[in-house]
Amino acid sequence: MEKPRLQGKPPRILVPFLIVLLVVLVILGFYPRLFRAMFVTAPESLFGGFLSGVSSGSRQAGSLWSNYLDLVAVKKENEGLKKEIALLSRRLYQSRDLFFQNAQMRALLSLRNRVVTPGTSCSVMAINPTSGHRTFLLDCGSADGIKEKSGVVGSFGVLGYVVRVFPHFSQVLWIEDTYFALEARIPGIPDSGIIHGQGQGKSLRLKYLPILAAVKVGDPVETTGEDGIFPQGVPIGSVRAVGKREKMLFHQVQVVPSEHLNDLHYVYVFSPEHHWSDHQLVGAQPK
């Protein structure tokens, strides 16, 4: 029968362990440097390195988090700046558009003050975007006194003439269209010719000026007032090139138009009641 163990008796391995520990401590007592190296410096170095690594990792993690927050802040700032730039761009475009509109209105008002025969101020509704005839629409029609063949001018000169009229809007044939034709003259030259459109973006052509006429580059070209469409002296453009050929009776004259469809907002439509020879521009030079 097995005997029961005593509860207070220490294990057998504990006594040798205590003896060895006592011997080690006695020996180390005679060698304090060895004791310090084993039980002070070594643990201190071990735990110091561990704590340094933990601290360095913590700093790096904190730095990464701080950089992330900075990137988020920079992104939000960039988005705000983009919105602000877009807003300022729209305001700048609106300001420039208003500036051009005001300039056109002042020029048209000046022209209207020089015209004896009545007319109507209109706004441009749309420009024909197709590759067909070059036309644009005005927001005034027969209810405003607009008639076919009424001359249309901008702030710098001739734009075209009305080809179709509706009660509240009308269609204008642009001066560059190939179907456009108008009597024209160069001041100082007694003979007149016919100005023709040659297509979008191309120069106009002035035909039937005699070869002996003294035409030179830069000469102004204007209306004659004898076609029943425009009064005398309205600018059409300026001479860009003059070509001469042997055995030809007339000059080959290229003309740059005074007006362009870009940024066109307001126009003035002449409404003549009589022949333009009796209602020319105030101050216009007679032929």
Automatic annotation (TrEMBL):
Q: What does this protein do?
A: Involved in formation and maintenance of cell shape.
What does the similarity note say? Belongs to the MreC family.
Keywords assigned: Cell shape, Membrane, Transmembrane, Transmembrane helix
Q: Where are the transmembrane segments?
A: 12-31
Q: Which organism is it from?
A: Leptospirillum ferrooxidans (strain C2-3)
Show the taxonomic lineage. Answer: Bacteria, Pseudomonadati, Nitrospirota, Nitrospiria, Nitrospirales
**One Pfam family of this chain:** MreC
- Coiled-coil stretches: none
Q: Which GO terms describe its cellular component?
A: plasma membrane
Official protein name in the record: Cell shape-determining protein MreC
